[in-house]
């Protein structure tokens, strides 16, 4: 069923609203959930849906993402025909430039898609956390003989104005697309997941590329043109867990969701596994003074002190007397003796000195990096005893 589908995974986002977390990383490469990166969820969806051809389109700070994807072995995509290809901006005889929009990222990789002669193009984002069987969406798309199918999720009505909203008829055919409407007509928000008939979408992509006034974006430009030409567009309802990890607060909240029983299937499901590309580390060491409650502790960690409602990545060390609560500690960070951290995100490789006390004082968690640590220790961003 999926043999004539090419997936294009857009993984080039800057993620500027994630601040220090994306200073040297593309947003999809940001560590998540103890031993994963954000992109692992979409890559695992591809693997579990048995889609065997995927182009991962990279752009900003791609080094770690390139290394992480590699030849796609964790997701069964290390194969001679199809498999995974990492696609970066390039220069040809006519010059080259960075991708200027989601549609532009596809049209500049037109030759990659064309070589597989696909029936359908599946367009995905690399910075969402969710589990989805794309074969079900594909079956719906084909059953409706749709030219394009857009996955939607119901959001609270008072938040609908923050999203691209699809207005539909009873049969879920789309008659209107509203980008962040002030007065939304419904709460069906686009998830940025598209299936297109390739022979239908290709000429629209080529025409859009010539339009100097276009943003070269699927939501802003391509979808409205398809609707104007009365193409068959349908909404596919998704009713599972889905989060766009776009801000520091949403990143913290989505990680914390993993500690709730209702959401643990995101990591624990045997039927729909999430595959990491993890380093080979020794088992975690839980010391004599350690007290751990409702937390995820990853391999290679050395734990003393009290850990509560927190996620510790690989190679983290917490020393005697430390208290870590409602926090996310990224790989190889060291938490000194008698340190108190509450609602804090510690970036990779940071060492928190003994006796530091840092607590979030507002709605947004504190992010400690090499550039911000001293500020929080010395200028009252947190507390320091």
Automatic annotation (TrEMBL):
The record marks 59, 98 as: Could play a key role in the communication between the regulatory and the substrate sites. The keyword Transferase applies. Pathway: Glycan biosynthesis; glycogen biosynthesis. Its EC number is 2.7.7.27. GO terms for biological process: glycogen biosynthetic process. CDD domains: ADP_Glucose_PP, LbH_G1P_AT_C. One of its GO terms (molecular function) is ATP binding. Belongs to the bacterial/plant glucose-1-phosphate adenylyltransferase family. NCBIfam families: glgC (TIGR02091), PRK05293.1 (NF003670). Keywords: ATP-binding, Carbohydrate metabolism, Glycogen biosynthesis, Glycogen metabolism, Nucleotide-binding, Nucleotidyltransferase, Transferase. This is Glucose-1-phosphate adenylyltransferase. Residues 7-260 form the Nucleotidyl transferase domain. The lineage of its organism: Bacteria, Bacillati, Bacillota, Bacilli, Bacillales. Involved in the biosynthesis of ADP-glucose, a building block required for the elongation reactions to produce glycogen. Catalyzes the reaction between ATP and alpha-D-glucose 1-phosphate (G1P) to produce pyrophosphate and ADP-Glc. PROSITE patterns: ADP_GLC_PYROPHOSPH_1, ADP_GLC_PYROPHOSPH_2, ADP_GLC_PYROPHOSPH_3. The gene is glgC. Alpha-D-glucose 1-phosphate binds at residues 164, 179-180, 190. Residues 289-358 form the Glucose-1-phosphate adenylyltransferase/Bifunctional protein GlmU-like C-terminal hexapeptide domain. SUPFAM superfamilies: Nucleotide-diphospho-sugar transferases, Trimeric LpxA-like enzymes. It catalyses: alpha-D-glucose 1-phosphate + ATP + H(+) = ADP-alpha-D-glucose + diphosphate. It comes from Salinicoccus halodurans. Homotetramer.
